[in-house]
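Postdoc handover notes: sequence design on the structure in folder B. Input tokens:
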């Protein structure tokens, strides 16, 4: 299975799983390559922003989603964009 076999639908389903249980993200396989290398960050681009953008990507096949603004799930602190290092991953087009 290659990365291109995974649709945005597959990715969205994985994101929803990660969102429901952020602490279990390391147990989730990547919908594209199957690696346990998914990352989810809720990023604020300005300190006064109140709704973060959700970034969800696989560190192995470097594919993922950019969603939002979306409220961060319980137990997850949004981070400032300047404080994290997000790789330049391939963002799948939105569904619809
Ligand atoms: Zn992957």
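Designed sequence:
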């Amino acid at each position: 299975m290659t990365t291109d076999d995974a649709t945005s639908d597959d990715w969205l389903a994985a994101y929803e799983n990660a969102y429901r249980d952020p602490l279990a993200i390391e147990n989730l396989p990547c919908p594209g390559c199957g690696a346990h290398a998914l990352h989810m960050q809720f990023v604020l681009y300005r300190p006064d922003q109140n709704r973060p953008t959700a970034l969800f990507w696989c560190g192995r096949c470097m594919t993922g989603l950019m969603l939002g603004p979306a409220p961060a799930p319980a137990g997850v602190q949004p981070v400032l964009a300047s404080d994290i290092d997000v790789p330049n991953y391939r963002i799948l087009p939105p569904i619809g």
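Context for whoever picks this up: Residues 30, 32-33, 35, 58, 60-61, 63 surround zinc ion (CB under 6 Å). Don't rerun without checking with the PI first.
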